[in-house]
Amino acid sequence: MAERSVRVWRIDLEAPAPPDHDLKEILATDELARAARFLREPPRVQFVRSHAALRRILAAELRTQPQELRFATTAKGKPFLTSPREPTVDFSLSHSRGLALVGIATGGRIGVDVERRQVRDELEIAQRWFAPEEVRWLEGLAESDRKRRFLECWTRKEAYLKAVATGLGGDLKSCVCAPGSDDETGCRVVDAQHTWRLIPLDQPDSAGCAMVDFEPAEVAVRDFEWGSTPEAR
Predict the structure, then answer these.
(1) What was the pLDDT predicted at 144?
(2) Fold annotation for 5-223
(3) Which of 87, 94, 181, 206 is 20 to 30 A from 200, comparing alpha carbons?
């Protein structure tokens, strides 16, 4: 990957894929143990496929084999590569109801998030977890628009918290979403040390984004296909 670049893959977890037993062969013991904790088959299959796709994508970028990758986590739970050691490469994975995003960045931190779920009580959730200005903004929207904007806000917040390695244990109010000048959801972040760049990845049936703490020289987004080498264009 070029310096200061971002690559994102969309993964349809319900599309035809190799048999699960083949995908499990490239996963580590701890990943298999986590997969086994899912009592229902659909979530278990989607976990296996999303993590296998992450390994294939990273392996293609780093010119190694998927099963050779080794991971560890920070004290706050953010995964990072230990083998091969690539301190300039950061990555993030998110999946929701049959859709996954994998983001890889060189030159800084990245977090990705995707949501497909329907939320009935978005204002109640916002009043509890969002900043006051976000609540006022959502309250002023029509109900049909509010649901979509709520999910956009949520993905921006979670992507930011993943990037800074706090996950949802962090302060949801540290990332404040507001309508942008082009009537799209923008994002400004309370972080004096970094200027965060939002890469929207919203689709008609999902909200999603990547968040990075640098200005990338290159951003590439593409769909992941099991039958081809994972290359971003």
Answers:
(1) 82
(2) Ribosomal Protein L22; Chain A (3.90.470)
(3) 87
pTM for the full predicted model: 0.91
Residue 33, exposed/middle/buried by CB under 10 A (0-12, 13-18, 19+)? Answer: exposed
In contact, 110 and 103? CB cutoff 8 Å: yes
Q: In sequence order, which residues have a C-beta less than 8 Å from that of residue 212 and are 6 or more positions away?
A: 6, 105, 108, 109, 110, 163, 196, 197, 199
What is the DSSP annotation of 12-59? ETTS--S-HHHHHTTS-HHHHHHHHT-SSHHHHHHHHHHHHHHHHHHH
Please report, for the chain, the start and end positions of each structural domain, with discontinuous segments joined by +: 5-223
Query: How, if at all, do strands 218-223 and 5-12 pair?
Result: parallel
- Tokens 């990075």, residue located: 212
Q: What is the pLDDT of residues 120-133, one digit of tens each?
A: 899 999 999 898 98
Is pLDDT above 80 for 171? no
DSSP state at residue 107? S
Give the C-alpha separation, 202 to 195, whole Å: 22
Q: CB atoms < 10 A from the CB of 64, how many?
A: 14
Is the pLDDT at 71 greater than 90, yes or no? yes
The CA distance from 30 to 148, in Å, is 35
